[in-house]
């Protein structure tokens, strides 16, 4: 599926007219992965060389590989990206199907193109997939970037102080194969109400972070 979706770019510099494309992972060609890997290196690089390192060698994912991507393009190439992966997580002792959202990035010159733009495009596809919830995590330092989701748009609920255990994407000698982080939980009610999200403050991904 390669679908162009128009999206609002309010607040984005006028020189950038962004077109959103929905792509399943098996539709991407080698050239797409190379272009995306360069985009991620440039987007994550300013936050530290360690964050850009997973995208070396034409790799367009950092941990788990997404199954569906929302990619924003303009006349300079890739402008923004959001990935989706359906998986079963465990909230305390409750198994739950979710669509994990992650691998979000925006080109440094387009800071006005917030995550809310890509989520508005992704939301209809979450509904088509008929998953109970969208799920994501952010580090506390990034909480301010999600305030629009729980403000005027009310797309998601944020819960701080949640611990999430994930497997590392690669196995290293003398390094534990899993890691636990305290994060802000982001839940998007899709086919079930937010009141049906299980109570609990410990989540097992049973796999690497998207």
TrEMBL record:
GO cellular component: cytosol
Subcellular location: Cytoplasm
Keyword annotations from UniProtKB, A to Z: Acyltransferase, Cytoplasm, Nodulation, Transferase
GO molecular function: acyltransferase activity
Entry EC no(s): 2.3.1.-
Pfam family, one: NodA
Summary of the function given for this chain in its UniProt record: N-acyltransferase required for nodulation. Acts in the production of a small, heat-stable compound (Nod) that stimulates mitosis in various plant protoplasts.
Matching HAMAP family: NodA (MF_00084)
Entry similarity comment: Belongs to the NodA family.
Record-given protein name: Nodulation protein A
Gene for this chain: nodA
């Amino acid at each position: 599926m390669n679908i162009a979706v128009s999206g609002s770019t309010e607040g984005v510099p006028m020189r950038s007219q962004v077109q959103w494309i929905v792509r399943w992972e098996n539709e991407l060609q080698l050239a797409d992965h190379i272009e995306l890997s360069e985009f991620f290196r440039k987007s994550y690089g300013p936050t530290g060389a360690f964050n850009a390192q997973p995208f070396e060698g034409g790799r367009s994912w950092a941990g788990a590989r997404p199954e569906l991507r929302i990619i924003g393009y303009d006349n300079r190439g890739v402008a923004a990206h959001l990935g989706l992966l359906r998986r079963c997580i465990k909230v305390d002792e409750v198994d739950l199907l979710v669509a994990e959202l992650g691998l979000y990035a925006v080109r440094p010159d387009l800071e006005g193109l917030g995550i809310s733009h890509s989520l508005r495009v992704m939301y209809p596809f979450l509904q088509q997939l008929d998953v109970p919830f969208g799920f994501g995590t952010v580090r506390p330092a990034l909480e301010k970037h999600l305030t629009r989701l729980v403000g005027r748009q009310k797309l998601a609920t944020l819960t701080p102080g949640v611990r999430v255990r994930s497997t590392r994407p690669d196995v290293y000698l003398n390094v534990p194969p899993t890691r636990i982080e305290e994060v802000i939980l982001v839940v998007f009610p899709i086919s079930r109400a937010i009141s049906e999200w299980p109570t609990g403050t410990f989540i097992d991904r049973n796999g690497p972070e998207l």
